[in-house]
Every structure is written in C-alpha cells, then in structure tokens.
Amino acid sequence: MKNINIKDLARELNLSVGTISKAFHDSYEISEDTKNRVLETARRLNYVPNPYASSLRGRRSKNIAVVIPEVADSFFSLAINGIESVAKEKGYHVLICLTHESFENEKTILQEFQGGRVDGVLMSVSRETSESAHILNLMGNGVPLVFFDRVLDEIDTAKITTDDFESGYKATEHLIQQGCDNIGFLGISECLSISNRRLEGYQKALNDYHVRYDSQQIINCTNDAVQNDILIRELLQGPNRPNGIVATVEKLTTPVYRASEALGLNIPADLKFVCFSNLETASILNPSLTTITQPAFEMGKIAATLLFKSLEKNDFNLSKESQVVPSRFIMRGSTI
Amino acid sequence: MKNINIKDLARELNLSVGTISKAFHDSYEISEDTKNRVLETARRLNYVPNPYASSLRGRRSKNIAVVIPEVADSFFSLAINGIESVAKEKGYHVLICLTHESFENEKTILQEFQGGRVDGVLMSVSRETSESAHILNLMGNGVPLVFFDRVLDEIDTAKITTDDFESGYKATEHLIQQGCDNIGFLGISECLSISNRRLEGYQKALNDYHVRYDSQQIINCTNDAVQNDILIRELLQGPNRPNGIVATVEKLTTPVYRASEALGLNIPADLKFVCFSNLETASILNPSLTTITQPAFEMGKIAATLLFKSLEKNDFNLSKESQVVPSRFIMRGSTI
DNA sequence: CTGAAAGCGCTAACAG
DNA sequence: CTGTTAGCGCTTTCAG
Fold first, then answer.
1. pLDDT of residue B271
2. Which of A25, A122, A297, B257 is surrounded by the most beta carbons within 10 Å?
3. Helix %, strand %, coil % for chain B, to 5?
C-alpha cells in the first residue's frame, strides 16, 4: 500500500540511505557486491525512487514540455512521436500541454513552468499569439525553449520550420499552371508565422504569374468549425467564386470538401484544392488530395535534439541553430 | 536559473515563509491585507511555487497519467481532449504516456509510476497486453486506475467501454443485409478485449444469418504497416476473396482502400467495408466510409471523472462504476 | 568502501 | 494574526 522509499530499503539491507543512493547511481565508491545486493532487493521490493524528491534535490526535473495548440492533428501527433523518441533516449519525460489555440491558455501554461516543472520547452504557438512577453519571461528564467513549425520571429532561439514561403509559392504556382485564375487562400491567423509566410508565397506566385490578387479571396479561418463552414460557404457561393484554393491547415480539408459537395461544385473540375496536411488519408479522399506534407516526425526529432543539447551544455547557443527543413509537394487528384 | 522561491518572497515582504504559504492557500489565519500584499508581490516577482516541493511534502503529485498505445489516432486524441477537460477543472496535470503497442513499454511506464509520479492512471492497454501483473502491482500500491476502451477483464476496476459486441454484430449484420456472403474480419490482437468482443459480435451475426464462417477470413493485423499491407493484399487476392470486411481500428482504413485500388476492386461493388473509426475524413473518402464511431471525448471525460472521484474519496469503489457507452453506426458509401 | 548529515522548497502543526 | 520548525525522499559533501 505504502510506497516503499529509500529508507525502507536501507533498513532492509542494513545500509545507510547514502550508500543506497550511490549504489543506484553506480558510484565508484560502492563495491560491486553491495551494488548488486541493493539492485536486487530494490527489484524485489519494487522500489522506485520518488522523482519529485530527486527533482527537488537535484534542481532538474527530467521533464520537458511540448506546448502545442492541439493533439487531434496529424502534424502535431507525428511531431510528438519524434520528440518522444529522443526524450526517451535521454531518460526524460514529455509533458504534453495543449493550448487549444488560446493565448490565455498558452500564457497560463508557460507561467506554470516558472515554478521549475520542466527543464525545457518545445513549442508551437497558438493562432492567437502575437506577443512574446510570456515566452521571454520564461526564457529569462533560464528555461531553454525551441520553436517548431509555428514560431515567433522576434524571439531569439532555435526555430525548426519548413519552407513555408516556398511551399505557399509552389502550391499556388501549381494551381495557376493547372489553369486557375482566381485563387482563394484559407489562413488561420493574421499573426501566425506559418500562415503569413505561406500567404507571402501565395502572393508572390500570383504576382509572378500576373494572376489577379484580390484580398477578398483571403479568408482568415477561426477556431470554430461551425464558423469556418460558414466562411468557406460564403467564399464558394459568393459572386467571385475562386476556382482554386490553397489552405494552410489540415483541419480545413473536410469543410472545403463538404462545402463543395453541398454547393454542387466538383473538385477538381470546378475547384482545385491544395492543402498543407499530414493526413494519412489524403490519398484516399474523394478526390485524393494534393498536399504540402511536412516532415513532422523529423521536425520533432530535430527540435528535441537541439533542446537536449542546450540542456546538456549551458554554453550551447540555441539562437544559432535554426533549421528549415523542406516539405514535400504531393500532387494528387484534387488539382489535376 | 534564478527561480525565485518562497524564501525570497518572505525576505522581500518581511514575513515568514509559513505566512506566505498560508496566504497562498487562502488560509483563514491570514489577514486580507497580508494576503493581498503577498499575492501582489508574488505576481510582481513572478513567483510560482515549485510543484515538486509541494508534491514531496503533500505526497500527492496533482498529476494523472494517460497510458495509451498511440497518439496519432483520432479516437485517442479525442479521448485525451475529454480527459484534459476534466483534469483542468480539477487543477491536475495530464501526463500522456505512449506504449506504441508494446507490452514492454507498458510495463516500464507503469513501473515508473511506483515512485509516486502520478496520483492515478487512465489506461487503454497495448495490443500485446495479456498479463495483468504490472497493473495489479501498481493498483496494489494504492494508485487508482480506470480503463477506457481497451480493458483487461480480469482486473477489478472501472472500465469505460463501448458496446463492442453489439457494434461488431451490427456492422456484420449490415454487410449481410447488403448482400455480402463472405465477410472478412481484421482484428489487431488475439488478446485485446475490444478486438475479441467485436469479433464475437461478428461471429454471432454470421451465425444468426447462417452465413458461412471461415476462420481463414479472420486476420490478425500487426503493428507494422508494411506487414499489414501484405496481409490485406493476401486476403484480397486469395482464392476465397471476401466481399465484405469489418475492420476494428481506424488505421486499417488506408491500407484496405489502397489494396482494393491496387487490385482493381471497387468499393462497394466488389468489396463492402465497415471500420471502427473516429476519422473526421470518413465522410469525404472515396467512397465515404461506413463507420462505427465511438464517443471518444465523452469516454475520456467519464473515465477521468471517475478517477477523480476515487482520488477525492478513498472509499469510492471504482469496481462498481464500469460503464458501457453506445457507439454510433454511420452508414456511408463504402457499404451501399 | 560506508555512514552521517545538510539541505532542495514547501506545508502544517504548534507556539506565540 | 504571524512565526518557528520538523520533515516529505533524495543526493551529496565530508568524515571515518
């Protein structure tokens, strides 16, 4: 019933707690024989050191946090797997914290970390995040932080991103080459780095190919699915209906398909559609979906690896370690 | 790492640490005036109590764990949201631990909890789990545990499941009514509760409708996508190709669709397909997918609520609290 | 090689 | 109303 602790173990073995602790950490001060005895009895009695006591004493928690908007999203869940794979190797635990795209939540979560709950943070900011004080605050307290995917430009630390501008450009260029001359853009935020860079790529492509740019065709989607449905429908039944759409996040896929169907628009004949997405089902949608697919697992891995480097040596300068990893453009039935 | 602590605060305010602590916990012993002063300076100095010190002292961590096979799965990611919504309300943190369907991982994770890392556990067992010693061990140490979805029958605690038998039955019955007379079943484990109950429902339906039962048509899928592709292809190009399939987990959707396409089989004309799935994209697949959809969010919520009840009062008997919540059967294009 | 003891930051019982 | 103090379980000097 009662969690057995180091003292119980010591009593059991007629040793001091200090010796036990050292044996556990494989200290050179302890004889092989004693180490074995300790390890063996520990196993027998099911002794597991209390992590909070260790954290308190050692001033490091052996926990890192992953702060993300949402877990029900292929990109983030794959990234988590990447992060976890390296954390495990380092003997660290991963705390997954969800902001649900709310800036308030994000602030609260980071604020909590001020108490020393985690040794480092991996983060993708919420769609509402435009200020950086809460992050700078935490970093100022010595907690290293690495961004992945959704970054805050003004913060000086490692940022693992994909080639958002190029991808936005390529997606748009592709639509143009497929004959679209009126292309809509579905963003998710006016302050979000990824949304803006992808938008810039989109704008550049329109410009390069002399396709009309119309700010009316740029929709800022919300965090509310019902509201998004309305926005998308409005776009698709408006007087100036686009014949191509670039969407910046996976969760916009279903609404666009459904709205098209409801309005009797055929994809790709009436409307060509490209989406930034890691959906496994992209290839079996009706029609199969042309995507910009990010190396999610890899990005998580890279970000985590950098974080651990900075955890391991204090003089490691994260701000020189940003990386841009390329996305893959996968052409499928929704645009051809 | 200049994390400010309660002592610093005390010095700043010319108060004792005891007073600060009490002020923080809104003790009746402390004057309003002092409380305000404390709270105000705490905010100003960015003081956040060290959670590990509190945990150590109070012998409760204010953390619960969610032990699941995988996060890149709609059911589990939705369930996490449900769990999180109640944990937040209770001021608890959620540790998400992934077994990746490995029994070894699962054991290691639960073993770690013996140290007191979490106050309670919500769990869906791995596909490999057939023994229960590791779980009983933890529960024996006073850590309450609630199962959701994938349970271990022999363990006496609350289990939040869906009507797996009935759903398996209904799915199969539907296929039969649509004219299938040779129905395959894709399971994921021979020891997994959900897989087995769904299988039993399938068998009962075959029996009730006098449809031939052939154990060759029951495939145990693995945790390896490549291997699964092979198994599914073998089934679909074998001499005794089924004209209907019931699959027990979401991740089998893409392989089945792709294999069918590769082999020139039309869904639903040549092969009708039902899948247990919470995929948001089910309705826009080609063809849209008939699913058994579980109330994932709700299940997470129920399971978490029960766990907190048992955390709040020791005499709460979890073993009397199991619930079966109904799934929804959603007929779509893959079977009609 | 082993043991004793001083904390890590916080809470709560007890004293004033 | 506020202060003092004894630990929670563990690690880590320092002594032996």
1. 97
2. A122
3. 45, 15, 40
Q: From the CA of A279, how many Å to the C1' of D8?
A: 47
The helix (run of H) or strand (run of E) holding residue A219 is strand A218-220
| pLDDT tier, A27 (very low <50, low <70, confident <90, very high otherwise) | confident
* Residues 38-97 (A) near nucleic chain D, CB < 7 A: 49-50, 53-54, 56-58
Handedness of CA B133, B137, B142, B148 (dihedral sign): negative
Query: Is pLDDT above 90 for A86?
Result: yes
CA of B44 vs C1' of C11, distance in Å? 23
Regions of chain B short of the pLDDT cut 70: 1-2
A155-166 average pLDDT score: 97
Separation between the CA of A96 and the C1’ of C9 (whole angstroms): 25
* Two tokens, residue A147: 């961004």
Q: What is the pLDDT of residue B58?
A: 79
Q: Which residues of A touch B280 (CB under 8 A)?
A: 251, 254
What pLDDT was estimated at residue A320? 94
DSSP of A179-215:
T-SSEEEEES-SS-HHHHHHHHHHHHHHHHTTPPP-G
Q: Which residues contact A311 (CB under 8 A, 6 or more apart)?
A: A64, A119, A120, A144
Domains assigned to chain A: 6-49 (1.10.260.40), 61-161+296-325 (3.40.50.2300), 164-294 (3.40.50.2300)
3-state secondary structure B276-323: ECCCHHHHHECCCCEEEECCHHHHHHHHHHHHHHHHHCCCCCHHHCCE
B13 in contact with nucleic chain D (CB within 7 A): no
Tokens of residue B181, six digits: 């007379």
Strand C closer than 7 Å to the CB of B22? yes
Q: What is the mean pLDDT of residues A136-153?
A: 95
Lowest mean pLDDT among A104-113, A269-278, B5-14, B285-294: B5-14
Q: CA of B117 to nearest chain A CA: how many angstroms apart?
A: 6
Instruction: Tell me how far the alpha carbon of residue A291 is from its chain's centroid.
Output: 18
Nucleotide nearest to A115 (CA to C1'): C9
pLDDT at B2: 65
- Give the SS3 label for residue B47: coil
Strand order in the sheet with B290-293: B218-220, B183-187, B244-247, B272-276, B290-293, B328-330
Report CA dihedral (B13, B14, B15, B21) to the nearest 10 degrees. 30
**Residue B116 falls in which region: left (phi positive, over 0), alpha (psi -120 to 50) or beta:** left
A277 CA: distance to closest CA in chain B (Å): 12
- Rounded Cα–Cα distance for residues A303 and A161 (Å): 10
* End-to-end C-alpha distance for chain A, whole angstroms: 64
